[in-house]
Design goal:
five-stranded parallel β-sheet, binds nicotinamide-adenine-dinucleotide, binds zinc ion
Length: 564
Amino acid sequence: MSSPRRNIYLIGFSYTGKSTVARQISVNLHIDFADTDELIESRAGKTIPEIFATEGESVFRELESEVLREVSQWPNMVVATGGGIVLDPANRDVMQRTGAVISLEAQPSTILARMQAEEPDATERPLLAAGDPLGRIAALKSSRQAAYAIADWTVNTDQLTMEEVSAEAQRGAEQGWERLAAGRLLEPVADDADSNFAFRVRTETAAYPIVVAPGALETLGQRLSELGLSGRVCVITDSGIPGQWRETALGSLSEAGFDPVILEIPEGEPSKNLAQAGDLFSQLGVHRIERRDAIVALGGGVVGDLAGYVAATYLRGIAFVQVPTTLLGMVDASIGGKVAIDLPTGKNLVGSFYQPRLVLSDTRTLNTLPPRHLTAGWAEVIKTGAIFDAELFDFLEANAEAILAGDEDKRAHAVLRCSAIKGRVVSLDEREMTGLRARLNLGHTLGHAVENALEYTGILHGEAVAIGTSFAAHLAERVGSITAAERQRQIDLLNTYGLPTTAPSDLDMDVIRAALAVDKKVAAGRTRWILCDGIGRGRLRDDVPPDVSDEVLKAFLDSSLRSE
Ligand SMILES: NC(=O)c1ccc[n+]([C@@H]2O[C@H](COP(=O)([O-])OP(=O)(O)OC[C@H]3O[C@@H](n4cnc5c(N)ncnc54)[C@H](O)[C@@H]3O)[C@@H](O)[C@H]2O)c1
Ligand SMILES: [Zn+2]
């Protein structure tokens, strides 16, 4: 998977500083720089006025489109474009599809002054040759204004230094990249022959399908054969997984000609440790599991993380398949390749990125999941809708009653859609480099602080995330990125699915503050929050002043007290 394109196109009238600013951005961001006018001149072996004079504007425009198409193929470029490039809709489309588009603006008087200062005889340029240069600039500029409006961001350059314009343009580029990332997320789900196919994850190291369907467990053996696996299969599960799911898995594997072995660990988070991993390594040895064999994780996130860690390291890595049986496992833990065990000093401290060969989610296994775990899992689904997918959010709202009553198709659809989003996000940002994957942590900043403050007892992760999501909605409303109604929709949806949206009454502001301070999302003294911009959109924010988040936190904890 290639990384997402992060080009920057600078558009705007002549003398708005596109070339200078592009050079500055290229230095700031360590990315390559191109100027379409320069490329045209070097390709044609003539200056632009010469091309206009000898071959006419249409030849120039053709060259310009050709050069733009070429530079758009290169990743990570900052491109200064000619003032008229936006006139051709095809050029606008190329720029919008491959990068952030930033418009540099200036008043006609500023443009004329810069023109005269830099090039005293510029008024002899063909476009400005006739009298009243100011009027001509204004007229030409206003005729292009609609085309310049395609920009993700506009910088008014009149009063700013070149450094300031560059910094503003870089800030604006984030918006454009966000738009691109969001657009990609909404690409239709790849149409596989298999209708239960949610998404094909593609990362630098792997490509694998996520399959979601009621009853999918019965197809486990056949799917492993289809993946080309033929050796022995070791199923790792925990003592809390009902026997019927093991039997279904083992039956399916045997039927497909595998000779499965089952290894059981005690249920619960304490099993995610080094001793348990060591024990599994020995047992794999006893059962003579070899390089070409495979490990299947049948269980929740605990089994998935531990079995994945073992698969990643045993014999330097053997094939691994995730068969999640909890809702959290299906929509979150099984997708994305994070595998880990805990240390006495903290959770998930030893681990790796190790992508599975397949994620197979049988939503029917949720029928036996303790209701509290099922409810907690919905928090991650609601969170995903709130930050990435208004359609999923709407679906959860509109079908709450049926889903909660166990409607198989609707429940499977919600799980499939949510899994597909997680799959797309990790495909675009496997290692949390661009901020996209980090956005899945909506509600987790305060959520982790709450879990921490309660020392991870008496509260499930999903419940803490629900509380954190509710708080993030209040904070987003306070900073003006969502309306009161949008905040309430999130809280109502969480409540509808049986989740808490207020903090437990025994939580102390100072304890929470201390927990927030140790959270890894604190950068340069500021807590970084994931906040929605409306429903289905959002981003990482480090610009929330601490006194504002403190004030909202205080009110949140106070009202939590009152509502108890
Ligand atoms: N790797 C990741 O990206 C990632 C993401 C999120 C969470 N996690 C990890 O996931 C873990 C939590 O996962 P979890 O919430 O699934 O908890 P879990 O694995 O402990 O499962 C919860 C309980 O439900 C039982 N259970 C599982 N499936 C069942 C079923 N179908 N019917 C009846 N009982 C069933 C289990 O035995 C267990 O007791 C944490 O360790 C967390 O760190 C990992
Ligand atoms: Zn989570």
